[in-house]
What does this fold into?
Amino acid sequence: MPPPTSFASGTVRCLLVLASMGMVGCATLIHGSSQEVVVESTPSEAEVEVNGRPVGETPTTTVLERNREYSISIYQEGYEPHHTTLRPGRSLWATVNLLNFFVPGLLVDASTGALYSLDPGTVAPELQPVDSSAVDPPMPDEEGGGAL
It folds into this structure.
């Protein structure tokens, strides 16, 4: 028969478990410090740049750190370029930490970047055709006389 454990050693174990739980934040555990962002477009096969660097053609998914702002640009020949900015906002899991007054979790989430969530999480514009009338020279009228 194993020796009986004292109340003090059981309490110490319980405190150690609770302390170790305080070393991690909810957001860090649940969704990490980076986020997948989906970039699509209509029409597809448009070039995608993040902060001026090519990352592929639509549709594509790119992984970005949650605690930074990003400029997304989408280009396709014959269409107006589309630009948008992804900004970090507070993550739902960070709010859970706040509501529970879980300060160690907030500190961990803030240090890893998991405190944030990029918004919008999906970029899916409908690209607009370039207005060809603005770039084409005027056509002469049918009677043969052109504008002088």
The chain is about 25% helix and 30% strand. Residues 18-24 have pLDDT under 50 and may be disordered. Residues 4 and 10 are 11 Å apart (CA to CA). The helical segments are 7-21, 26-30, 92-99, 103-112.
